[in-house]
Write a structure and sequence with these properties.
Distance between the termini: 74 Å
CATH architecture of the domain at 65-172: Orthogonal Bundle
Order of helices and strands: HHHHEEHHHH
CATH class of the domain at 65-172: Mainly Alpha
Shape: flat
Helix content: 25-40%
CATH topology of the domain at 65-172: Cytochrome Bc1 Complex, Chain D, domain 2
Number of helices: 8
Structural class: mainly alpha
Strand content: under 5%
Largest sheet: 2 strands, antiparallel
Length: about 190
Amino acid sequence: MRKLIPAVGLLALAGCEIPSEFLQRMETQSKYEYYEASEFWADGRSMRAPPEGSIPREAKVGNPGMTTGRINGALVSAIPVPVDKRVLLLGQKKYGIVCAQCHGVLGDGNSIVAENMGLRLPPSLLDLSSKPVGHFYAAINEGYGVMPSFSGELDTEERWAVVAYVRALQAARGTRAGAEQPLPQENR
């Protein structure tokens, strides 16, 4: 009995005659085309200017150093958020989820994924300590080489937290176990 219900429904729909103008009414309705003159608006144009004060969604707003890792095209050299224990713990967590698969848990580029990469191995982040912090942020935000952008996985705060954690990994590289290390001092 249940198998019969869909068959009856299809049979009923097959008998319906829906006029094509009903299905295509949006294509055939009257509307203005681009740059067409209009008698409705006082200025005679059909295309409207954006409202005063509106911002296009493609526009970069706010502090460009914070959102892109660059100011006037130059990579920023200071982390623009205060670096504290909470930020470093967030950076450690997000690094472990997003970055460690390729760059290794220690940031040295040693990982199972890296061992199986055929094109180009991920670099050791520890060897890049001379790069400004904007380099790491821009790489996370835009991608770098064969590394894709992770801007969809990490928001702005999380990206900077990962950068702070990478700096902490770099600072800890030559440190003996148990030695006290200050937080990265790049948060001016």
